[in-house]
């Protein structure tokens, strides 16, 4: 039961082998049972939302709604009407939004049933999910290790099969890296594919909602439902609705897959290198043609990202001032102290650090040298990809140079930022990309990243699905959670 | 300007930043209503309150209005315009930043002609950009708290920035008036100064006449009356000259004008000024300005006062002074042109009556023409009665009062009260024949050369007809009867 695909669960629901309540009950029980181990969820719904259940049942009766009755959790930065949305922060510990994010609304309209809200690095800043005001999250494959971040709660919940589907968000790798660390599939669509309305913003020009699930097929089904132009988000793209088509065969013949050989050769972790080479060999075996490509400016991506993302966050997080909502200090002497104390108490260290970096990069005298230069680098990286996609259909590369590390092994900082070097380039270019499980090293999952051209989610999901038709890494989950 | 004791001749340099509130139905980014005077915090959307996850969506009407303004001052219009965030903390700024424009404003370099004591002068406009207004902080309502009203937060403004090209306070006022006339004639601003729909910041510096470099400036904030701006600038220039002449140095700072005490006082100096950390708003894509968008707005450009004055004088035969008065007042010229279209009376006669009797009526009631209780159509009806000779100017004044009170049209009032002039010569002849018969002595006196006696007969007829006798006809018949036996 707990390792079924969305399509299989949907078939059982439609044929009344199981009811929506029963299916959601199975997963609700698992969240209750396993959250003590993983701390993957910040909120577990004691009762399911009656309106969502009714909607699911009505759609099942109609038929043709593959997501009706499927339980999910939302990363706790998607605003949920009447349900606490903490963003992993003391600042929003008691914040109850008066509206739904577009993503939440769309999935609810399709009959998905929310069973909780997922833990995350505070305001989506972090790569280990150790920076949550609601406690760190543990990797189901080894509870002494991190699940990755910032969508670490979503990844751990899916990996432990506490839920079949989780939403996540990705700014510089926050879906892909935890998906890789936890051995699941996670897709960050093209920038503009999914509405950002109701997603608490970290870095507006990079943030993008996406899906985390065991398989590419599951991801494709959910992504189809959550994407689309939204008049409430000016940056949401006017593109034809994404409509995932699962490939019928594993045959990838005619597909050109780009690789940067140096990225793989330079991997320090022999296990990751071997799994990566094996996975690429499998793509080749499926009929894909390998093409060597060059992304000459990708080395500059981390530097540019850690100017641009903090710059935007320093402005986006200004609204948390203790005046209208969110944490308000009790130690007020004047307006200045209200701001200073509320923000010092409400924000964690990593968030404060990034606000400081960002404010500095935007300040007069430094703007040209940092912010503007970083924008130029961003354009160069986009141009590199444009060049590459004139030769190939998909790019395959590592997700992370390392596997899940132990809690406390790395303090957030430049060394942790370095680990984002394979995920950030596609983020800066706004390209669709995913991570899929390709095996294990030392008992820990390894992921492969597939990057597609703008709005070519179909191509990367197809390639991943074809790979998953031939392999079963995506079906494996830790024995302790059986 | 003022001669000083050590005989330095000082010159003022003034640049203005004018904030024009755009008269749109909804706010710049939230779709919330933007009407003035609603109860506090009743027009606040989730976005206006800065709730996390909310996103701005541009109100295209504001783009159109800004373009219309740009065209009206012959400005360069860019093909792409970009919104930027201006970051600072204040309780009436819910997002912690104001969405404004920095590098690519919607209106580029333009210019406008103003009238000065030395004739016409062209003032260059540096730029005009779109931005959202902040909310309102109310500090004097509660003892222990400041109150915040977010109704104004997010309402659309254009900020029009001039080059520092005004050299005295009168020119600054003339420039402000010229911009005011533009935006009200364009129909993009309601022009309500009391409600803050049109307000300005003045950058003022002084320098010895002949010097080409600029002196250090002070910025006087939030001036919302033509009278105050003149006083504030003059006061500020005096203050600066006094400092410089006593060997001091001007500090670059922001000052507030205190109208009650006619002085400016320091708000903040440049040293502790905010670093606004402007950067392009990542929540919005750059906006493409197409020629189609520009052409659509060009079609909305009205006739401006300068052109109107020329037309009134050349085509309608108005005196320059009357043409100037009417053309410069948007509501007055609207009323005038509407009545012209409805009335058979001559245009210059109409103008005289409008600026004379009708204006006097408005003044009596302390009412602006836009709120006149007599419509332009009714006013035109009265003009026609005058023109046809049905009533005299004197009676017309009386009818105006009645029209104001009753809302009736002139024809109705004349009929109801029997105010029509007696222009029927047979009727007048009967009256005059009887008069001559009844006053043989007076007739004899007139005929023996006492010409003053003529007025006696006119007066008697007017008395008998309660002033309704057509004076021209009356005189003519009297002359006939008295002179020709």
From TrEMBL, chain A:
Which HAMAP family does the record match to this protein? GatA (MF_00120)
Please name the Pfam families in this protein's record: Amidase
> What task does this protein carry out?
Allows the formation of correctly charged Gln-tRNA(Gln) through the transamidation of misacylated Glu-tRNA(Gln) in organisms which lack glutaminyl-tRNA synthetase. The reaction takes place in the presence of glutamine and ATP through an activated gamma-phospho-Glu-tRNA(Gln).
Record's subunit section: Heterotrimer of A, B and C subunits.
Q: Which residues form the signal peptide?
A: none
**Protein's recorded name:** Glutamyl-tRNA(Gln) amidotransferase subunit A
- Tell me which species this is from: Marinicella litoralis
Q: Name one process (GO BP) from the record.
A: translation
Gene Ontology molecular-function annotations: ATP binding; glutaminyl-tRNA synthase (glutamine-hydrolyzing) activity; transferase activity
**Do you know which PROSITE patterns this protein is assigned to?**
AMIDASES
Specify whether Cytoplasm is a keyword of the entry: no
Q: Which UniProt keywords apply?
A: ATP-binding, Ligase, Nucleotide-binding, Protein biosynthesis, Transferase
Catalysed reaction(s)?
A: L-glutamyl-tRNA(Gln) + L-glutamine + ATP + H2O = L-glutaminyl-tRNA(Gln) + L-glutamate + ADP + phosphate + H(+)
**Gene responsible for this protein:** gatA
Where does the record place the Amidase domain?
26-461
TrEMBL record, chain B:
Q: Name one GO biological process term.
A: glutaminyl-tRNAGln biosynthesis via transamidation
| Family matches, as Pfam families | GatB_N, GatB_Yqey
Q: Name one GO molecular function term.
A: ATP binding
Q: Which residues form a coiled coil?
A: none
Broadest EC class?
ligase
Write the Enzyme Commission number(s) for this entry.
6.3.5.-
Which family is this sequence assigned to? Belongs to the GatB/GatE family. GatB subfamily.
Question: Under which name does UniProt file this protein?
Answer: Aspartyl/glutamyl-tRNA(Asn/Gln) amidotransferase subunit B
Taxon lineage: Bacteria, Pseudomonadati, Pseudomonadota, Gammaproteobacteria, Lysobacterales
